[in-house]
C-alpha cells in the first residue's frame, strides 16, 4: 500500500483535526473514533514549528492513489477503493460516491465532491486521477484585500440569512413570532447529540420567553434508519398544528432508545393520542407514500436538506442565531451570551 501523506495548516486554537474529520464522517462531532497515534495534533505541529507563525485556517489531506483514466473520464470507483484502503472510517460507512467534477482554480487539479452517507466533502483530483486532495473546506482565496474580504463576508452573511429565512418559512416555531432573536436549528431526531441539545434549547426558551423563538429545520442523516420517517411523521403533524409537531419532537428525543424504523410511525400515533388534530388525515400523510400530502412533506424535507447544505451545515445539531452560525458554543451560558449580543444588535 502506498504510504499516506498528510499536510496540515491551521490557525492557532481554531481547528482540531479530529473534529474536522468527525464532522466529515459522522453526525455526532465529539466521539468519532480516530487513530490518535497516527495523527499529530495541530497544537503539536505548532509547537514544533514555533510561535508567531500565521497560518491559513485550512486543513488538507493528501492521498496518493493508484488509478487509471477511462476514455470517458476518471475511474472514480478506483479512486474510492484507494481512499477506503487509506481511511479505515470510509470502509465502515454505507454510501460513498465521487462526483461533480469541474475545473478548479488550483493549477493541475480538478474539483470534485466526495459524498459519505450524504455528507459532501470537497476534493481536488489530478486530471489523470493519480492524486487526490481531500479538503476540510473549499480552497480559500488569500489574494484579496481586507476590504474585499469584508465585502465578501457581508455578501455571504446576507445570502446565508436569506437562505435561512426561506428555509424557516412555514416551519414549526416555538416562542413569540415577533421575538428579536431567532434560533434556527438543523436537527435529526435519531442523533443523540440533538437529543442532548433539546434540553439546552428548552432552558434557553425558559430564560428568554419574550426575546427568543426557535425554528426547527429537518436534517435527517442517511445513516439513521428512522430519522427520515420520523421527520415525515412530525411534519405531517405540523401541517395541522405546531403543538402536535412539538409533541412528537419532544417524544422522539425522550424515547430515542425505544424507536426503530419499523415502529416509529406506530409510536408516533401513540404520542399524538391527546393532540387536537385529524388523525385520519395525519395517517394518510405519514403512511401513504402516494398521497399528495406525503409527497409535499417529502419535498419540504428535501428543501430543508438543500437549505442546510447551502449554509454549510456539516453536522447535527447545527444552530444559527439571527443568521450567524454558532461556532463552538456547547453550554447554556455560551448560547446566552450570543443571544444577548444578537438582541442588542437587533435594537
UniProtKB/TrEMBL annotation:
GO molecular function, one term: oxidoreductase activity
Gene3D superfamilies found in the cross-reference section: Glutaredoxin
Domain Thioredoxin: start-end pairs: 126-344
Coiled coil (residue ranges): none
Record keywords, A-Z: Disulfide bond, Oxidoreductase, Redox-active center, Signal
InterPro entries: Thioredoxin-like_fold (IPR012336), Thioredoxin-like_sf (IPR036249), Thioredoxin_domain (IPR013766)
Family: Belongs to the thioredoxin family. DsbA subfamily.
Official protein name in the record: Thioredoxin domain-containing protein
Origin species: Longibacter salinarum
Amino acid at each position: 500500500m502506498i504510504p499516506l501523506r498528510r499536510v496540515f495548516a491551521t490557525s492557532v486554537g481554531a481547528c482540531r483535526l479530529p473534529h474536522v474529520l468527525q464532522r466529515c464522517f459522522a453526525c455526532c462531532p465529539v466521539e468519532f473514533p480516530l487513530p490518535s497515534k497516527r495523527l499529530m495534533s495541530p497544537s503539536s505541529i505548532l509547537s514544533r514549528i514555533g510561535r508567531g507563525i500565521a497560518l491559513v485556517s485550512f486543513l488538507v489531506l493528501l492521498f496518493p492513489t493508484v488509478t487509471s483514466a477511462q476514455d470517458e473520464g476518471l475511474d472514480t470507483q478506483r479512486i474510492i477503493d484507494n481512499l477506503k484502503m487509506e481511511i479505515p472510517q470510509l470502509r465502515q460507512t454505507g454510501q460513498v460516491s465521487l462526483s461533480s467534477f469541474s475545473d478548479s482554480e488550483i493549477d493541475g487539479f480538478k474539483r470534485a465532491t466526495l459524498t459519505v452517507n450524504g455528507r459532501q466533502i470537497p476534493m481536488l483530483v489530478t486530471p489523470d486521477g493519480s492524486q487526490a486532495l481531500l479538503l476540510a473546506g473549499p480552497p480559500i482565496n488569500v489574494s484579496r484585500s481586507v476590504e474585499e474580504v469584508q465585502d465578501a463576508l457581508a455578501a455571504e452573511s446576507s445570502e446565508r440569512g436569506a437562505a435561512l429565512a426561506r428555509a424557516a418559512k412555514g416551519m414549526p416555531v416555538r416562542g413569540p413570532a415577533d421575538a428579536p432573536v431567532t434560533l434556527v436549528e438543523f436537527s435529526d431526531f435519531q442523533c443523540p447529540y440533538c437529543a442532548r441539545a433539546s434540553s439546552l434549547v428548552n432552558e434557553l426558551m425558559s430564560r428568554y420567553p419574550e426575546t427568543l423563538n426557535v425554528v426547527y429545520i429537518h436534517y435527517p442523516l442517511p445513516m439513521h434508519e428512522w430519522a427520515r420517517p420520523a421527520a415525515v411523521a412530525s411534519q405531517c403533524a405540523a401541517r395541522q398544528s405546531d403543538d402536535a409537531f412539538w409533541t412528537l419532537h419532544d417524544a422522539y428525543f425522550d424515547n430515542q432508545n425505544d424507536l426503530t424504523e419499523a415502529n416509529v410511525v406506530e409510536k408516533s400515533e401513540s404520542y399524538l393520542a391527546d393532540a387536537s388534530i385529524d388523525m385520519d388525515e395525519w395517517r394518510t400523510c405519514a403512511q401513504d407514500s402516494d398521497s399528495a400530502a406525503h409527497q409535499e412533506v417529502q419535498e419540504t424535507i428535501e428543501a430543508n436538506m438543500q437549505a442546510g447544505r447551502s449554509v454549510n451545515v456539516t453536522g447535527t445539531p447545527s444552530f444559527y442565531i439571527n443568521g450567524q452560525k454558532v461556532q463552538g458554543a456547547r453550554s447554556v451560558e455560551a448560547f446566552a451570551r450570543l443571544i444577548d449580543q444578537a438582541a442588542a444588535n437587533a435594537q
